[in-house]
Amino acid sequence: MLKVDHASVYFRTRDGRTVHALDRVSLDIPDNSFVVALGASGCGKSTLLNAIAGFLPLSSGTITLDGRPVMRPGADRGVVFQKDTLLPWKSVVDNVALGLQFTGTPKAQRRTRAEELLFLVGLKDFAKAFPYELSGGMRQRVGIARALAADPDVLLMDEPFGALDSLTREQMQELLVSIWKTTGKRIFFITHSIEEALFLGTQLVVMSPRPGRIVARFELDFVREFARTGDARSIKMAPEFASLREEIRTILHGSDEIRSAAE
Amino acid sequence: MSNVIETTGVVVRAETDQPKTVEMNGFGVGERNTLVISFATAVALIGTWWLIARLGLVPRLFLPTPQEVATQLGAVYRDGYAGASLGEHISASLFRIATAAAIAIAAGIPIGLLMGLNRWAKGIFDTPIEFYWPLPPLAYLPLMIIWLGIGETSKVTLLVLAMFAPICLSAQAGVRALPIERVNAARSLGARPWQLLVSIVLPSALPEILTGIRIALGVGWGTLVAAELIASNRGIGYMIMSASQFLATDVVFVGIGIIAACAFAFSAAVRLLEATLVPWKGKS
Asked: Is the dihedral of CA A99, A104, A108, A113 positive or negative?
């Protein structure tokens, strides 16, 4: 269980003001879950992910992974970034094997493992290619494979499909669900797309800015249904899906109005 | 009038069956080859030189013809000049440059990386480097000779000082250009500080470092001649200096030509190194 308990973050801006980026956020990411954080930009969702990843210390509150407090980045939490962060001087297979290289796994063994993962993300023919030869969607798939290679306890994904076109994005969502199903990894996923959030999450938290906080939580079943049936279209066409989408849209806009009324 | 507009794909086949290939318009020079242009320029320059000398626009003493320089090169190669063979002059200069480059690279890269990574290192090394780096090497050459004598040590030290700064500063710039996401990605894959330095920081800074080495080699050849002007009996710079004292303009030309050729070869070697080590430069 990954447990975020009353996590608060304050930043100091360049001109000396204090910004309340995250306000007492509590969140559990149980085994086999797919937790999605949804919100407009500036709602603190990336701050939350950075804190879980260990890139950012908390002002107050705690984050624990299976009981161990999170202090710094580590291989137990794999991260997939919005901007691809592949190493341009390494081939695709060596990029995937990077985490294994850090743990000192022998070369032949990490090659084998990396090739398995490339097969999983559908890139087995691109092992020897270099990142600059790949499209945006393919690079993100390499990024996912790389994060999985270190066999993390949880996968943290920071708007990984945000820069992709909508067709590729849907393909990537379906690929991600199949990876989630195959590997059984816990996933914490950030997005600003309501549809993506509804389709992917077993648990959805809606966040609102200034200060960044959780304003609503939903338990969802669409992703399990998709994992079972493989039919994305009928799920997204379903009336429950549409009504939830409208409900969340109201929440997001509502928190907007509350804020502007307060100002 | 029809309601349906039918479009048919038209396949245009050229006689050769080879489609015309196109590629993205780049910006700047990019990867396009400049060899032919450079070669033509060299030919044009030598042609101009030959023409000016041939027409007698300038007295022979000041500007020998290309043929005279070529003949002189042969003579110097056969008989040597100023008490040493041509090979000895060249190898003396090359030894100094190579030794100094090796020392400057070995010290400049780690110190530059450290300065990019650590506040203390930056604060400490910034002061002496910013102080001495803008000084012309000839200004502190007398000090080198007084402190270190007239042997190889003072010359190599002078060269090391001249070559160290560009390498060190470029390594530092390389670290500063490193995106934080790349570091965070490596950390979340379990990289320890040492692995971060070797696997992420150094390769990321490599393009800048290689540019710095190229600049350093240029500065090095410039400084070398200055170093050899004083208190030496071997080296291309020394050869040029003693020739100028006898107004042997053709030998001066031979010396300049050899330095240019050596500097060009060094620069080409670094470019080759760039092509092998950082083929991804500017592509990510």
From this structure: negative
Q: Any chain B CB within 8 A of the CB of A55?
A: yes
Which residue out of B187, B189, B278 would a mutagenesis test of the A interface target, given it has the greatest number of A Cβ atoms within 10 Å?
Answer: B189
Instruction: Using alpha carbons, select from A167, A251, A169, A243 the residue that is nearest to residue A206.
Output: A251
**Cβ separation of B280 and A130 shorter than 8 Å?**
yes
Tell me, yes or no, if A110 comes closer than 8 A to chain B by beta carbon: no
Pair A177, A144: CB distance under 8 Å:
no
Chain A CB within 8 Å of residue B186 CB: yes
Q: How far is B164 from chain A (nearest CA, A)?
A: 26
A147 to chain B: which residues are within 8 Å by CB? 188-189
Cβ within 8 Å, pair B184-A74? no
Q: Give the Cα separation of B277 and B206 in Å (integer).
A: 8
Contact A101 B192 (CB under 8 A): no
C-alpha to C-alpha distance for B244 and A91, rounded to whole angstroms: 55
- For chain A, where are the alpha helices, taking DSSP H only? 45-53, 92-96, 98-102, 107-120, 136-149, 166-183, 194-200, 222-229, 232-237, 239-262
A-B CB pairs within 8 A amount to: 72
A171 at B interface, C-beta within 8 A: no
- How many Å lie between the alpha carbon of B210 and the closest alpha carbon of chain A? 15
DSSP labels for A187-242?
EEEEES-HHHHHHH-SEEEEEETTTTEEEEEEE--HHHHHHHH--HHHHHHSHHHH
3 state SS of A29:
strand
DSSP A35-48: EEEE--TTSSHHHH
Interface pTM (ipTM) of the complex? 0.85
Task: Nearest chain B residue to A150 by CA: give it.
Answer: B189
Residues of A with Cβ-Cβ distance to B195 under 8 angstroms: 102
Maximum pairwise Cα distance, chain B: 100
Task: Please name the residue that has the structure tokens 């690929």.
Answer: A175
Query: In terms of residues, how long is chain B?
Result: 284
Look up residue B18 and give its two tokens: 């080879």
pLDDT in tens, chain B (284 residues): 445 555 555 555 555 678 887 877 777 776 677 889 989 998 999 899 889 888 888 887 788 888 888 898 898 888 888 888 888 999 999 999 999 999 999 999 999 999 999 999 999 999 999 998 888 888 888 888 899 888 888 889 999 999 999 999 999 999 998 888 899 999 999 889 999 999 999 999 999 999 999 999 999 988 888 888 776 888 898 898 888 888 888 899 999 999 999 988 998 999 899 888 888 877 65
Backbone phi and psi for residue B49, each to the nearest 5 degrees, phi listed first: -55, -50
